Amino acid sequence: MADSRIASNGHIDLAPRRIHVVGDDGVGVFLASELSTYVHTSFVGVDETATASAARAGLETSQIDVTDLRSFAFATFSDGDTVIVASSVDARNFLLAQTIKMTTGVDEIIVRLANPHNASAFEEIDVETVCIASMLTTEVLDRLTS
């Protein structure tokens, strides 16, 4: 039986899920742009530069002020959505993930983790992490050994 989530072009259809990538750099913008091929994706910038970059890439964008909880009300996070917190700084990601978890009804929060030694802090707030350093190490080792 064929997987009904695979479209005729071979892409995985994750609809009606919505993904919001919260970020402050090109990594977050690139991630949102790539995901938008498969699923409705928006970019929520934490600074004007990243937000402008995402808009130039054709993404739906909004911006939040991490120091103002009221700004999270404008980020259109909804029940059933997935939020990927992908800023370049673990401390900021922790604050963002914790705030989003406390103030919204999103089902899933996935966090970009730069330093694997910080993983336990994210476990305490019950969010998933993707460690960039660990993924890069694995990829380099795979290439060196193949």
UniProtKB/TrEMBL annotation:
All residue ranges annotated as the RCK N-terminal domain in the record: 21-131
Domain of life, source organism: Archaea
Pfam families referenced in this protein's UniProt entry, alphabetically: TrkA_N (PF02254)
InterPro entries: NAD(P)-bd_dom_sf, RCK_N
Alphabetical GO biological process terms: potassium ion transport
The protein's name in its UniProt record: NAD-binding protein
Native organism: Natrinema halophilum
